[in-house]
TrEMBL record:
Underlying gene: gmd
Record GO biological process: 'de novo' GDP-L-fucose biosynthetic process
Gene3D superfamilies: NAD(P)-binding Rossmann-like Domain, UDP-galactose 4-epimerase, domain 1
Organism: Cellulosilyticum lentocellum (strain ATCC 49066 / DSM 5427 / NCIMB 11756 / RHM5)
The protein, known as: GDP-mannose 4,6-dehydratase
Swiss-Prot/TrEMBL catalytic activity: GDP-alpha-D-mannose = GDP-4-dehydro-alpha-D-rhamnose + H2O
Keywords for the protein's UniProt record, in alphabetical order: Lyase, NADP
Pfam families: GDP_Man_Dehyd (PF16363)
Amino acid sequence: MKRALITGINGQDGSYLAELLLEKGYEVYGIMRRKSVVDYGNVEHIKDKIKFIYADMTDAISLINAMRISQADEVYNLAAQSFVATSWEQPIATAEIDGVGVTNMLEAIRTVKPEARFYQASTSEMFGLVQEIPQKETTPFYPRSPYGVAKLYGHWITKNYRESYNLYACSGILFNHESERRGKEFVTRKITDAVARIKHGIQDHLELGNMDAKRDWGHSKDYVEAMWLMLQQEQADDYVIATNETRTVREFVEIAFKTVDIDVEWQGGGVDEIGIDKATGKTIVKINPVFFRPAEVEILLGDATKAEKALGWERKISFAELVERMVKNDMEFVAKEIRMINI
């Protein structure tokens, strides 16, 4: 029985990865930060199947201890301060967790079990001000946020440890991936949650920033399979994981509302643009400049050809299905909230 250690296990990706590894017969260990109230997050439904270890990415000793306890054959580093907007407000914390934290984990592996295989969750935000379209493994990086910069350090230190110490260490440069388990602070879940609340009549409108930002969106469940595949190869390498499609925030909004039978009609432009419910004439989308980034990433479009050929990986869930899944899940969630209030 293989042993796997997952950092960030109670997040979106961590939960899907834990499910996948349990299905494959792994003994799964998960790192959790100690809090006054235990929060299993997205792994609440499988918590009895996971062995939890309290540790922190900024505490190297605790990570060494986690490696000694788990004796993991595979380590998946998914822990991060992953909200881009917060990285401007907390740049040092972001650097410590997303950058130095990766080094701490690599040192723990090198100290305790150097034969273990390591996966680092890199990000398309490292491309930032894109130098070519589409972006692939050889595209130069140009991060546009403290988050992207910190992640770039994590990416390069992983490569450095692979080449310096012959560790099996690889990075997955994952483009935007969402799911029903995405946190509400992320724009995609913010949209689907608002759509559900507007449809149920408990919210008037949705406020967003840059409607023209383009992203390559896939489903987290597909992407964690790519993580696992990377650690099953003979040689460690880095791979872009993407859908090879790019969509605007505006398109995401339109499909989300369409899922609940609301057609959006756009009026005006710039910060004065609004989205109107065609049937009622009500304003359901507004632009709020507070949500603009200090330095915007205008377009991300990934080329996953290498992963498709070398790993045999493929995206199964389409963009439209992704959005529909998220909206339907939030429709049920909001309906439950309303029932609880009315009890």
